[in-house]
Every structure is written in C-alpha cells, then in structure tokens.
Protein: D-glycerate dehydrogenase
Amino acid sequence: MAKPSILVTRRLPEKVQARIARDYAAEFNDDDHIFTSDELLRRCAGKDAVLPCHSEHFTAEVIDQLPDSVKIIANFSVGVDHVDLEAATRRGIVVTNTPDVLSDATAEIALLLTLGAARRASEGERLVRSGGWKDWSPSFMVGTQVTGKTVGIVGMGRVGQVAAQRFRGFDMQVRYHNRSRLDPAKEQGAVYHPDLDDLLGHCDVVSLHCPATADSRGMVNADRLARMKDGAILVNTARGALIDDDALLEALTSGKFAAAGLDVFNGEPGGDPRYRELENVFLLPHIGSATVDTRNAMGDRALDNLDSFFGGREPGDRVA
Ligand code: 8YV
Structure:
C-alpha cells in the first residue's frame, strides 16, 4: 500500500523527521520559515495529512479551502487555538494534539518566569553584562521573595497540576481556578475557587495554564488585574491571547504589580514592543516546550496519532 502523504510545516527533531520519512511520503519545510496561508494551501495539495505547529493558522477560511484529500491535522502542540475546530469538524477533518509530554518542560518555564520576575533576574543580568554594575547597597536590586507565599493556578489541567507541584517545592500555598473541581487526590490540598475573580485577591503569584478559547481570550483584563493584590506577579506560559496587554502594561507601570513573567504573547513572534521597555518584566520567546526530550516526545506523540488514524484506529489525542 502507498504510504500516506503528509506535509510537515516546520523542521522537527532529526529522529522525528527520520520516523516520518520512514513511514510517510513526506514533504518537509527545508528552510523552516512560517508558511503564509496561501503557501500552506498550495503545499497541502494532494496531501492526506498535515503536521503543523502552533505557528500555522488553520482559520475557518484556510480549512474551507483545504483539498478534500486532507483528512487529519496532527498538531505538534498541545494548544490548538491556531486551528478552527468547528470548521475542521464541519469538513470532516480529524484534529489531534500532543498533551502530557510537554507538561514538565512548560512547568519548568512557569517556575523560571516566577523566580526571574520576582528576583529581577533579567534586569540583573543586563546590568552585569553591560558593565553597569558599579555599586552595591542593602537596597540594591531588592525583589520579592516567593517562598511561603500563595500562588493561584488558573487552569488546573495537565500543565497546571505539574506547575502546582513545583510551586509546592517553594512551600507555596496553592489555590486554583478551573472549570470543575479536581478530585481530592489530584488536588493535594490546593484550595479550589469556582470563581476566578474570587481567586485573584488571595494570590501573590498568578500563573496562567488554560487554553485560549472564545471564553478565555482577554480574561486577564483591567477589572481582573485590579482585583489582584498590590505587588503581585503574573506569569503566563499558556497563550498571549489570555491577556489584555494595555491593562497589564498599565498594572506594570503604575506600580500596582511588582512584575510579570511572559513566555507567550499576542502577536508572536515579537509580542507587544512596549514590554521591552520595562525593567519589571521577564520575557522569554515561547520556549515552554523547548527541550530536546520534550520536542522528541511531542514528535512521537503526533506520529502515534497519525499512525493510529492511518491504521484505522481512533487517534489517542483527538480533539476534533
Ligand atoms: C509548542 C505550545 O512549542 O504545545 C503548545 O501548545 O505552545 C508550545 O509549547 C508549540 O506549540 C509548538 O507548536
């Protein structure tokens, strides 16, 4: 039987690309640029499947123009906000993602952002690198201690639960907001807040771990930020779309917030340039899952989903 044909939109780890080349008739993106919608559509011609990253946007408009041959979008990502799931379902296209395998790596970045923002790490590093470190005093580069404080996890899914575990390592009290309450074994003493507004006022650190959906987009707005404690820290490893940037920039410049740690942005790559002007933000370029182990595991997970689909089985990580 002929191998299914597949478009792989970005360069993946060598081991993953080798597995794809062995089992599929693959077209790779040799120079690894982000495809425009037109290019994506052109390259999908005659393909049975596409294996994209979050950088390719499968809007309803794109999905409606996909050739009939495309039967599955097997994402190399846990987030699927770049795919219009309703449009895919309407066209009978299966969509899968790569959960679990990136939870540890992303939780590591949530902790890094928390500590980096709280202890002014990038500001300090810039100072040393620039040769501007000329003095020391007891009030020099004083930051916020997080040990023993309270963290609010917004979205207690797979990544949120691992992050909670890591925050506990800093003796932090964990509170969380989620659509539904976890069972007590998974809660591990974390305090559940059915109402997000109610959670925010209790927390010294708020860490976002929920997907970007129609309901959650812009949920961190001026009203919600005002409910947070003075001197709080906001951390985002989920999606930039959760945050109203004007409101967060105001909280960071007015003195309301101590700091923020951001790995994801509206308008990636790049993000809102106004963040770059601020000292009290710790910024990373969407590297939550960027470890060798995790990227290999994500590739294997995406391919397991494809293998199931083309083997006539239900893919384990089907989201549409
Ligand atoms: C991935 C992510 O690196 O999986 C996700 O949803 O946001 C990232 O950690 C990226 O999406 C790869 O496509």
Observations:
- The first helix runs from residue 14 to 23.
- The mean pLDDT is 98.
- The chain has twelve helices and twelve strands.
- The two ends are 27 Å apart (CA to CA).
